[in-house]
Amino acid sequence: MKKTKPLFLALSMFAGFGVLAAACSPAAQPSSPSAPTEASGSVGEQVDHKIIGIDPGAGLMNATEKAIKEYGLDDYELVEGSSAAMTAALAESYKNKKPIVITGWTPHWMFSKYDLKYLKDPKGVYGKDEEIHTIVRKGLKEQLPSAYAFLDKFEWQPADMEKVMLAITDGKSPEDAAADWVAQNQDKVNKWVEGIAPEPGKKISLAYVAWDSEIASTNVVKTVLEQKLKYTVEMNQVEAGPMWVGVSNGDADAMVAAWLPTTHADYAEKLKGQFEDLGPNLKGTKLGLVVPTYMNIDSIEDLKK
């Protein structure tokens, strides 16, 4: 594997530094590719033997370095950068229907904005899909029964979350994006609160990490608790460790942001018995290499062709 370079050096293969400005205004990007651009040569030559990555040290980047070794992609360069720079590069390539390979994960708003696909991973380098769980403090069921009952029912799909994430990316505040989604999905929301009595004046605190996915889900939960069950909701943004500790020791009442069984495994094991796991609120999370659907490849193994 070639030595990684910061993404801003690699972006010369696109439209220079103008692509970085696109990251600040994603709404200006097209939702579908323009007329086809003829591509020639091997897949590696078409993408300049680059895989566009995110932050150095991220678990996804570590897995991709392993994938490069496992699949014999030694002539490929994993380009370090950030999620914003990665999506900017994707937007520029997609607009011109040019080949690109990126590190991707679900849920992510880019799957709602663009037609993308994961490359098959026959060696299983990226592991099995994870779930996002709802975790509450001990005693919540007795003290805030309506909130507990709703949190126990709360479950949605990656496509739901991605719609909220995309609205935020396109410029809406998290509060407005969540409120709009709730207003547009009343049938689903009403099933979450069916048979649950409002508790006006009761207060509940939600802990979350500053990931796009968890900002979306926590704001939706806050909106439902306030609108349907008349709670006063406090949101506390913290790092993953303090989030788990906060719910376990009662400083926070609940979180809908626990990635299991892998990402947050250490916290779950260390604090075992000190919290209640209400199960998954979202299934189908995924990590891997992603390409636009207009690229005629299906597997990581095809990158060698």
Automatic annotation (TrEMBL):
Alphabetical list of Gene3D superfamilies matching this protein: Dipeptide-binding Protein, Domain 3 (3.10.105.10), Glycine betaine-binding periplasmic protein, domain 2 (3.40.190.100)
Plastid keyword on record: no
Matches recorded under InterPro entries: ABC_Gly_betaine_transp_sub-bd
Keywords assigned by UniProt, alphabetized: Cell membrane, Membrane, Signal, Transport
Domain ABC-type glycine betaine transport system substrate-binding stretches: 42-184, 202-305
Signal peptide stretch: 1-21
GO CC annotation terms, alphabetical: ATP-binding cassette (ABC) transporter complex
BP term (GO), one: glycine betaine transport
Pfam families: OpuAC
Alphabetized GO MF terms: amine transmembrane transporter activity; carnitine transmembrane transporter activity
Subcellular location: Cell membrane
Chief subcellular location: membrane
Domain of life: Bacteria
Protein name: Glycine/betaine ABC transporter
Organism expressing this protein natively: Brevibacillus fluminis
